[in-house]
Amino acid sequence: IHEPQSQDSLLSLSVDSEGLQKQIDELSTLSETPAPSVTRILYSEKDVLARRFIKNLMGLSGLSVREDAVGNIFGRWDGDEPELAPVSTGSHIDAIPYSGKYDGVIGVLGAIEAINVLKRSGFKPKRSLEVIMFTSEEPTRFGISCLGSRLLAGSKELAELLKKTVDSQNISFFDAARFAGYANHLQDLTSVFLEKGSYSAFIELHIEQGPILEEEATSIGVVTAIAAPASIKVDFEGSGGHAGAVLMPMSRNDAGLAAAELALAVEKFVLESGSIDTVGTVGILELHPGAINSIPSKSHLEIDTRDIDEKRRNVVIEKIHQSALSISENRGVKLSEFKIVNQDPPALSDDLITMAMESACQELNLTFRKMISRAYHDSLFMARISPMGMIFIPCYKGYSHKPEEFAAIEDIANGVRVLALTLAKLSLA
Ligand code: GLV
Ligand code: MN
Ligand code: MN
Ligand code: MN
Question: Cα of 331 to ligand 3 centre, how many Å?
Answer without folding.
Answer: 39
